[in-house]
Amino acid sequence: MKNVTIKLLLLTLLALLGVVFLAGCNKQPANAEENTEPQVSNTPGREFDLGGYTIKIAQWWDGNPKDRKAIERYKAAEEKYNCKIQYVTIAWDQIVSKYISSVLSGEPIADIALFEMTMALPVFAESDLIIPVDDYFDFNDPKWPPIIKQTGRYAGKQYGFSNASWNLSGIYYNKELFNRLGLPDPYELQENGEWTWEKFLEIAQKATRDEDGDGQNETWGLAIQAHNLYSPLILSNDANIINIDDNGKASFALDEPNAIEALQFFGDLYNKYKVVVPATNETDWYEAPQRFSEGNIAMFFGQSWDGEDFKTAMKEECGFVFMPKGPKASDYVVPVLQESKIFVMPKHAKYPEVAAKVFEEIYLFNNDLVGFEYWIGSFLNSDEGKKTARQMLNKGKVSMHQGYPTFDGMLFENIAGEIITRKVPADIFIKNFKDKAQRAIDSEYE
Question: What are the alphabetically sorted keywords of the record (predicted)?
């Protein structure tokens, strides 16, 4: 699976740092009372004068401004606060470990760092590696994407922030195959409010065909990437996997009727209706999109990066629509899992107040529609798909369960083993799984 067991990584790094310390490292330990704003110079005409200090922003791609207006914003902020702004580019698979080790040393690698949300929360908050930012930003300002109250908030405090939230995921469908098989267009169903689980299943059944009578299906209704459809189905039926209260207490939520209904539907797609193309390796995150791109599978749930790959690999045009609505849902939602990104500020940050001001001045907020249109054009061709993408803004529904990696791994393995392979009914599975699942959740951050 893509998610990293951050808790284990943290403990490993702590152990390694302890060994270094015992071996005679003479570096003075960081002051535990840090995160009070150091004194900055007061210069006439400047609210804050950082004296040439470099505000660093860490992420896994080059964030340096490219267009003229962005460059002007950066230069204006540098002049206003007498500072420099620098991006620190760190590989995706290294940014967590480098961030942790730098904060534990008392010298954070950056003033602001970007992470996939469940790489940062709850683990960084529970481990005292990030600071709340409620005092530095006014999150009542409507410029902030509403979803950050879901993706960046934990235990009653706001830790994560983002200028924009372009969380797009949904069903890709092969338009040429749909036309050849005479299947109804999901986009038209969506626009009429009729894109439901029932219609989704109906299409998947009609698309699963043995066209030459040899006992082998030539076309399939659906490809599922490493069983990743159960979470979107749960969210699309007005349910969730875990609930977290304002005290940070996480509770198992799959025993609620809507969630059980979603898990049963997920299992039925495999075992009752048999519309899912069989996987040769159920943990291979690349097999299902590769199979879909070959042109004989009707539908695939995916992210924006999947669309980029399909544009390159497929001669057929793809449509793009919301996840279908479950029976208990009143509206379409965009499932938001670990891929949603948030910025955080580290413990021992030197100038968090000024870093916050710089952030607000260099980034465009949710009104950056030019950037959004350019981005969706990178993975969507059709006007209908782009219209859907616009409708998806502010439709996100978040699950934080991947922030509890022990539970997340256990859930994946048990759903694959019990519901898919052994065909255990969802209600019985949940009855047997609930207590050990809650124990795993509770033990994650003891």
Answer: Signal
